Amino acid sequence: MKRYLYFGEATVETTGESGMWPLDTFLGMTPAGASSTTMHFTSRKGAAVDDVLTITHTGNTTKAFMTEIVKYLQGDQKNPFLLVADRTNTSAVTSMIASVAVSSPN
Description:
By secondary structure, this protein is an alpha+beta fold. It has helices at residues 12-15, 62-74; strands at residues 4-8, 18-22, 26-33, 36-41, 51-56, 81-86, 91-92, 99-103. The chain has one domain (4-103).
């Protein structure tokens, strides 16, 4: 069964800052600053540039955030729809996530 990761920001209804990627397109994470991490996925549109999500995790280190995400992805997930961040209803894999920004090439 193919699994998908969903990410959405608080104003997704007006900004469109959300997306869902197959787990097998996840390429990795890199620190973007003291309180933010970028998550990279193979482009959904076939572009040479990755789709990038910038996750803000204020008050927590990048290492702590990455550890939480990896623990979640390694878990025995039965549902193919994995809700990582849904800021419209403040549910998330971890309470560390403060905001999500989606950058996808056109």
